[in-house]
Amino acid sequence: MLQVVWFKRDLRLEDHAALCAAAIRDRILPLVIVEPDYWRQPDVSARQWNFWRACITDLGEAIAAKGGRLCIRVGDAVSVLSAIKAEHGPFVLRAHEETGNEWTFDRDKAVRRWCKTEGIAFEENRQFGVWRGRKVNRDRWAQAWDRMMAMPAQPVPPLLMWERSVTDNLPDAAELGLTEDGVQVVPLAGRAQALATLHSFLHERGEHYTREMSSPLSGETACSRLSWHLAYGSLSIRETLQAAQARYRELPLSEKAWRQSLRSFIARLHWHCHFIQKLESEPEAEYRPMARIYDGLRPRPADAAKLAAWSEGRTGYPFIDAAMRYLNATGWINFRMRAMLMSFASYDLWLHWQESGLVLARKFIDYEPGIHWPQCQMQAGETGINTIRIYSPVKQGYDQDPTGVFIRRWLPELADVPDAWLHEPWKLTEEDRERLCPDYPDRIVDHAAAAKFAKDAIYALRRKPEARAEAKAVVQKHGSRKRTADRKRAGVKADQLKLAL
């Protein structure tokens, strides 16, 4: 029987369980469904589509090189599958499990209902170390992850028998109703680029990953830069992990910096799936705090003027604004800056994490819902279990950009401000501000006062008995069971996976 392999966020032929399962059974119809309704959701953007589109094109070329043709259909999934059934008769539908946003979750449930009604078998394979459902036992989760990641990565099947079908043209962003959003640096997509990026990180760029990943200056090259390739599946987590492990094993003991950096990177691959498991086990985490006592802590709707100032990089805090403008222009920024931006929105501006989270989701080309939403909650202090981390924008600036190279690059209106005042331009005299940076705004809030207000509000809730009871339940459902010693060796804390690898 015809095997329809539905590619979603797994745009590769290598280490593709659904493709391998199909290849040993019958002819394969490789399918990508472009769903216009998905691209109307509030967490997606043109920059994401443009990267995804390039990955789809690359997948089509890989299939063509193997003698097939990728079938692209534009429409809702159920209608597309109904049309394929009408054209080709009954089939088996195969795909990887997906932990996406609420829209994709509902879409997959609708597909399962249709398959049941039509007598179509829908077989899903696990793509990485995330287990389906709400009742995953975290006590054994890490060991199960280790076992899956230790299994050999599956090569492209040697025999691929293709079925051809009518295909649509890939739409551009405008055809999907997406407005170009000012991204200036378009990352190269596709399998070859993913492999080249992985190789350059493991053999050239990653030696000082542990030491250099925090600054937006050094992190631009020291970070792996694999996050968008993993998000769209040009690489699998297992391939990436096994390549890092192989590189680690071949390093001599004298290469201490390399070995420490690879241990840290390997730990973060584990945390990738740990966070996605949170959203899989509790889909409501996209829009409700894991600890329900925090419902209503921050006002909704958020202050529109503050949200816009933060989103556009005009808060009056130079390091915050430079980081945001860098993200706006590139679609990526390193982990500490993501945490800092979310911290500033959550504590200094007291914005609801979902509203600021939606803004960031659209900016991140590597948006991965299962990492993004638990991280937004964590950085906002609404999980009930994680340490409250309020980043000082001035201290972060001095620590990560002491001479102001990054600030001046992204805030040209501050180019003439001396180093002594660059991180705190509000300390300039009124006359000097008018002379040196007349177009830069005043700071939107006082950080010290805002941080005190936020701490007081959150700790007032945390002291309540019901908050402590909820925290225990959150730990039981979502907490890591990885041993403290393992985390120390890896150089990370249990709640410190950052948003980008």
Automatic annotation (TrEMBL):
Cofactor note: Binds 1 FAD per subunit.
Gene3D superfamilies according to UniProt: 1.25.40.80, DNA Cyclobutane Dipyrimidine Photolyase, subunit A, domain 3, HUPs
Cofactor: (6R)-5,10-methylene-5,6,7,8-tetrahydrofolate; FAD
Residues engaged in binding FAD: 209, 265
Keywords: Chromophore, FAD, Flavoprotein, Lyase
Region Disordered, annotated ranges: 473-494
Example of a GO biological process term: response to light stimulus
Molecular function GO labels: deoxyribodipyrimidine photo-lyase activity; DNA binding; FAD binding
InterPro entries: Crypto/Photolyase_FAD-like_sf, Crypto/Photolyase_N_sf, Cryptochr/Photolyase_FAD-bd, Cryptochrome/DNA_photolyase_1, DNA_photolyase_N, Rossmann-like_a/b/a_fold
Photolyase/cryptochrome alpha/beta domain boundaries: 1-130
Family, similarity comment: Belongs to the DNA photolyase family.
Protein name (Swiss-Prot/TrEMBL): Deoxyribodipyrimidine photo-lyase/cryptochrome family protein
Species in which this protein is naturally found: Sphingorhabdus pulchriflava
